[in-house]
Design brief:
The structure is a homodimer of 287-residue chains. Chain A is of the alpha/beta class. The first copy, chain A, has 11 helices and 8 strands. An 8-stranded mixed β-sheet of chain A has the order 3-2-1-4-5-6-7-8. In chain A, helix 5 (100-105) links the parallel strand 5 (91-94) and strand 6. In chain A, helix 7 (175-197) packs across helix 10 and helix 10 (235-258) runs antiparallel to helix 11. The radius of gyration of chain A is 21 Å and the shape is elongated. Chain A starts with a strand and ends in a 9-residue tail after the last helix. The relative contact order of chain A is 0.11. Chains A and B meet through helix 7, helix 8, helix 9, helix 10 and helix 11 of A and helix 7, helix 8, helix 9, helix 10 and helix 11 of B.
């Protein structure tokens, strides 16, 4: 058995993909933990993790790194329940899309157990280990929200992990900044997608949709429990982003209604120039 | 020289791609027409069209099919200016994203010149011949809005063209239905994208964006003149779709603000189930 272990707690879409992507990293054993027997069976049959078990206590005492890949409230609960079970000196981290509440919850950990919040900006609209794939993190951002006391050694380890699983870059920030920006770049995109799908025209529009519609609505087929938690655990920031969107949308609606082509054209020139200036790269649309 | 000719009027992103995709179709000569000398030079150097010219009158008298690939108001103007120049018995069609105004404008054509409105649901956020590519239409919908008097022969020809350039299917509808639905599936997606880019957080969010953000905002880098025309020529339908969106977004915002997790979760379950039921296929995201 390897003398170093990374535990992946929760082998869903992200945890399963992470366990696959980490395979072979610096000689670490990748130990998967999940409470679902069908998930464990799938993991064994498909080599997700070098070892798998339903008992976290089998793994935690020897784990040098623990990736918590549960839903946000599951992470909070796991930290509280297992606060005494981590190996002294180990690094605990996670993958979830809110960070302030998670860093707050990590305060239950004893001194000597480090915590670095982590959010790989990757995913699909599916869930479950059967949709996991090792390439999920390729060209994604790997966001870290360390504690003030997080060690350089652990930060360097996280950077090597990011590189190994194929991330494009590592972005270090505070939990508060992460949550304010993610309300805009991620959570609001999901609210837009579900809102568009609430339109009565949804089913009649089949046959009339192109890549812009598919790109905008893809994530509407979301994991309800996960996103209920993400939205509610970041409600003030999300509310602020949605308020801004309502204003900007309404200004466009007014410009369309006004029949003032000069105004509409100027607004579009302004927004299109902003988008071009932003110039995002990344794995994207095929068409 | 071939004894049958398809004229492509306007060699921009769509016209250029169409000329490339049509190459070799049933022995037709593909004759490209554009008023821009740089565009014509590019077309000659890259084989966009079997022949190219800046003079529509060189081509119209022999063209059996005329694809108008100009901006909407350019199509209206071309139809009016050249109404007497089309070959008797020919088929005139177009590729633009509004149909009621175009079918209306086609009434200037003399008897014996057929018109079928056409909208291939394909495109990218770029413009100009240098971004054209023959594969643009692969797996796209090919929407037709014929006149009542359009001939079966011409409809069959359009279906063969759709198949040749790689479209997934042919959807036949009325101009009014096309415009009502496209306000939702296409124009509203572009209004959402530009509205999201008007948020002050746009530039600070770089490094924190994933595929949902890229998918939603990609089309914000739009062709300002084209989209000003599309929005304004379909303003009532677009206004209606935006009103529906405002209501649906606001209901989600209220659910987030309320702190009522049961309400939020039920709303998400409803919308996500609608999206899954819709089950769109199509060329899509790489991740």
């Amino acid at each position: 058995m390897a003398d170093k272990t990374i535990a992946v707690i929760g082998l869903g879409l992200i945890g399963g993909s992470l366990a696959l992507a980490l395979k072979g990293f610096e000689g670490y054993e990748i130990a998967g933990v999940d409470v679902s027997q069908p998930t464990l069976r799938f993991a064994r049959e498909h080599g997700v993790g070098d070892t798998v078990t339903d008992d976290a206590l089998e793994v935690l005492p020897r784990a040098d790194v623990v990736f918590l890949c549960l839903h946000p409230r599951g992470i909070v609960q796991f930290l509280s329940e297992h606060r005494g079970d981590f190996k002294p000196g180990c690094l605990v981290t996670d993958v979830c899309g809110v960070k302030t509440a998670i860093l707050e919850a990590s305060r239950v950990l004893p001194e000597g157990v480090d915590f670095i919040g982590c959010h790989p900006m990757a995913g699909t609209e599916f869930s479950g280990i059967e949709h996991a794939f090792a390439e999920m993190f390729l060209q994604s951002h790997f966001i870290l929200t360390p504690r003030e006391t997080s060690t350089e050694e652990h930060m360097a380890l996280m950077r090597r992990i990011a590189g190994y699983i194929g991330c494009k870059d590592v972005v270090v920030t505070t939990p508060e900044e992460h949550d304010a920006i993610l309300a805009y770049t991620s959570q609001m995109m999901h609210i837009i997608a579900v809102s568009v799908c609430d339109d009565p025209m949804l089913f009649t529009c089949k046959g009339f949709e192109g890549s812009s519609f598919r790109g905008c609505t893809r994530v509407a087929a979301l994991d309800v429990s996960l996103w209920t938690q993400l939205f509610s655990m970041n409600a003030p920031a999300l509310d602020k982003a949605l308020g801004e969107l309502e204003e900007n949308l309404h200004a466009y609606r007014e410009a369309v209604r006004s029949g003032d082509l000069k105004l509409l054209s100027e607004k579009l020139a302004y927004s299109a120039a902003r988008k071009r200036q932003m110039d995002l790269e990344g794995p994207d649309l095929l068409e």
